[in-house]
Amino acid sequence: MKDLDWSNLSFGYLPTDYNVRCCYRNGKWGEIEVCSDEYLKLHMAATCLHYGQEAFEGLKAYRCPDGRVRVFRMDENALRLQSTCRGILMPEVPSELFMEMVTKVVRLNQEYVPTYESGATLYIRPLLIGTSAEVGVHPSDEYMFLIFVTPVGPYFKGGFASNPYVIIRDYDRSAPLGTGIYKVGGNYAASLKANSIAHEKGYACEFYLDAKEKKYIDECGAANFFGIKNNTYVTPKSTSILPSITNKSLMQLAEDFGMKVERRQIPEEELATFDEAGACGTAAVISPISYIDDLDTGKRYDFGPNPGPISTKLYNHLRGIQYGTEPDVHHWTTVVIG
Ligand SMILES: *Cc1c(COP(=O)(O)O)cnc(C)c1O
User: Fold this and answer.
1) Which of UniProt's keywords are assigned here (predicted)?
2) In terms of domains, do 98 and 194 share one?
């Protein structure tokens, strides 16, 4: 293993040895190429640069206490990328190709999978871009699918902890019938300003209401929202949020724990009724919410300074599955090394 100070890593880019690539030409996917160059040679009129034909995914490889390296639900990331491809007219990357490339890139860079003890992981970033030159607004004929990996530090440096969020009404991340349900870069460009305002004001993240009525909960930055009350896990149903694989997994675990699960519209005022609330996604699994401020109305929805018991139980259980220390009854993990 590389001699790096794993526990001091941030969520930044650290070079590794290899990335894997596969090109789509003449209506079909080619061979997988192993590459050590971090740069792309790209036509300046490529559609990804001008018209946003760009999609990505995010997942992690975990070095486990049993010595193996596991990845979590990569079949789900493949399906979500296919949905994104249909959404912005790119050719679908077949699940087998996606999973073969994930496995390959982790194995090729196994020296960079951080130690279990460090709490750090290997972040896997699949990227699909339109590469042919177009000046008119058309989908590309040619595409490149590539995956790189980079070690990232633990999300919670000082242990599982709660953070404050802020409702922002002045900016929308995505429109009700727009691209919010797809993992495309454009949604992130649209969120940069609100995110920077939230940080400036001392919050961990911005919180979006639905763009049309500004009435219902949508998402927290790049994570899904959930609230807990009366032994029920409640999460928004919306046409403008990204279907989080972490959220999907937490819903299943909540059900396994005998809780009720509701996926429905959540009016902002309902926030006052939750005992616990959290943001969920691959980066943190769960980032518990201490309070949510609505600066326009002056309201504060308070969930207490520390993570609640159910969020903590869900967090520990899902992490246990990812690290192979809890039984993987739903067959969510794949051993890629060991
Ligand atoms: C990636 C992403 C999430 C989290 O999805 P996971 O599959 O759980 O990592 C949530 N919201 C947005 C906008 C995202 O891009």
Assistant:
1) Amino-acid biosynthesis, Aminotransferase, Branched-chain amino acid biosynthesis, Pyridoxal phosphate, Transferase
2) no
